[in-house]
Predict the 3D structure of the following.
Amino acid sequence: MDESDNYLDDEFKAIAAELWSHNATWWQDGFTEGADPEYTEQILPILADLAASGTRILEIGSGEGQVLRYLEGRRSRERLVGIDPTPEQIERAVARGGPQFYLRSGADNLPFPDASFDTVIACLVFEHIDDLEAALAEVSRVLMDGGRFHFLLNHPLFQTPDSGWIDDQVFEEQYWRIGRYLQERHTVEEVEKDVFIPFVHRPLSKYLNCARGASLRLETMLEPAPPPGFLDLAPEYYQARFVPRLLVLEFSREPRSKDEVQAERATPQTP
């Protein structure tokens, strides 16, 4: 869909909630329990490495819980909590078991006291969140000073709406077309036949500047090549191995200033 006029803006949250509920089973069947090579070969190992020292971990947009189950399987943790706004995902996460604790919640109003976690994870989630500033402010609030935020995105440059492979029959070359990267917009995209998913596209600078404004300091940035299992699904696109689909950002929570501490003390805390 071409949303060049951004007419989805006012209705985006309601549309997104309905679509995620409708497509919950599609996600669970196609991307969890070993079904998706990008998760099994790349995303889960990257997160296990980044979060190796985390003991009190919150995952935002935890879906049916595969990331937290994977982390728990590598070592015991003091606390593993997942939040997701979609009830069908929470129900499946609980049914699949483990010591993790799941809550239904959005990212812009987390139901936890300040400085509750040493690690926060968001994996392919923020490109679907409407209020970026509020969500990042909440990440910062619930992180302990020095805590880590592991932030994985569909690469905002190469996964821009209207991007895709071009087979140029005139020049006999293959290349990746980039859409309107600088234009922030809400879209609903047909990612498979009859499967429509809501997205919010923003340039990378918007993510980085908002994170900086939330006292989150960039520590590491990774742009891994797609894993072999993904490339094997479409071997005719040889150039795909040179175009990153994933962007991995690791932030640290800067020490709280006196003003921040006073403001947090003055704000009622969720138990």
Summary: The radius of gyration is 19 Å. Residues 9-157+183-234+244-266 form a domain with the Rossmann fold fold (CATH 3.40.50.150).
